[in-house]
Amino acid sequence: AHPPVEIWRRLVGPGCSSFAVLGPHLYTQEQIGEQEAISCYELKSGSAIWKHTYEARFWDSHAGAGPRSTPTLHHERVYALGATGILNVLDAQDGSLIWNVNAAADAGVELPGWGFASSPLVVNDAVIVAISGKLAAYDIHTGRPLWFGPEGGESYSSPHLFAIDGEEQVLMMNGKGVLSFRPSDGEILWEHATEGAQIVQPAQCADGDLLIDVGGAKGLERISLSHEADHWTIHEHWKSNRLKPNFNDFVIHKGHAYGFEGPALACLDLEDGQRKWKAGRYGGQILLLADQDLLIVLTEKGDLVLVEARPDHHEELARIPAIEGKTWNHPVLIGDHLVIRNTREMAAFRLALKE
């Protein structure tokens, strides 16, 4: 009854980045000619505030040119990894450079087929990035290397912070499976083997169990962990090929996972791994409005779609064309502002609030 209202629309350089948000500002990454750029825009108008550029360019036939990662914001700083492996740390207010490193060179990792795609993770005084399947940690104040993880083959996942059984740890999906690292020194706490290059992030169920991609578009697995002294035990509950989020993300809501099975949207029961339904043609990316039992889908063709997040059946409530061209960038929701982009343009919409 009250569709999103467009607030602004602007051109943007190529890249797969989403937006990070701090107060009235949006931060993203894009390609400008032969330079990668970390850019700051105004949320209300889309006007450019500053851009930090440096010589770097990556292209592949799959996603085109530009950076693949989304910047990370922490304590008035922007942490951004480029597609060729350069890690920049900037002042969030004016874009001035604080320090940068060539993380790919430091880690001794060659550029993978689709570029480096990790969003940085800041934990205490360390920033951790995935250089393909290998983690690299740096001191956030100086850029001094702190530790490097083992080789992990090709991967396009990011390091992910979890608290499991009371212990803070960083999980990384790579060619070996899922590995857990102690953030302070990089010691491996536990590992669980899977197959194939990893792309999507693990997710945590309400009871603390983990839902992980088993690799190679083969589906999901639910595991739980416990530990005594220094020994971790992994409990495997089920594996299911009824939802295979190989490229697109998935969300967990009220005992079910919602994600993409190819271009279709599917719902999976977390109790037994059985699929409840599969319907529609979407692709793209997904946001959960948990308080309203709704999903916002930004399709890979640029449509915004509202779908009910309920396990008994699939119902699409509304759909509008929002942006033109192949759209693989993740949308963000800030209050009632929904901001989207692809490799050519970006736009902001105001969503109707309940009266």
Protein model, in words:
This protein has 355 residues and is mostly beta strands. The chain is 1% helix and 51% strand. The protein has one helix and 34 strands. It has one helix at 103-107, and strands spanning 5-11, 20-22, 25-32, 35-42, 48-55, 59-60, 64-65, 72-74, 77-81, 86-91, 97-102, 121-123, 126-131, 134-139, 145-148, 160-164, 167-174, 177-181, 188-193, 203-204, 210-213, 220-228, 231-240, 251-253, 256-261, 264-269, 275-279, 285-289, 294-298, 303-308, 316-321, 332-334, 337-341, 345-350. The strands form nine sheets. A four-stranded antiparallel sheet has the order 1-34-33-32, with no helix packed on it. A four-stranded antiparallel sheet has the order 2-3-4-5, with no helix packed on it. Strand 8 (72-74) and strand 9 form a beta hairpin. The mean pLDDT is 95.
Attribute tags:
mainly beta; 355 residues; four-stranded antiparallel beta sheet; 51% strand; 1 helix; 34 strands; single chain; globular
Report Rg.
20 Å
Let me know the largest β-sheet.
4 strands, antiparallel
Unreliable spans are: none
Average pLDDT works out at 95
Distance between the terminal alpha carbons, to the nearest Å?
A: 13 Å
- Let me know the number of strands: 34
Question: What is the topology, as strand order, of the major beta sheet?
Answer: 1-34-33-32
Helicity, as a percent range: under 10%
Shape: globular
Relative strand content: over 45%
Helices, by number, come to: 1
Short description:
The chain is an all-beta fold and 355 residues long. 1% of the residues lie in helices and 51% in strands. A hairpin with a 2-residue loop joins β24 (251-253) and β25.
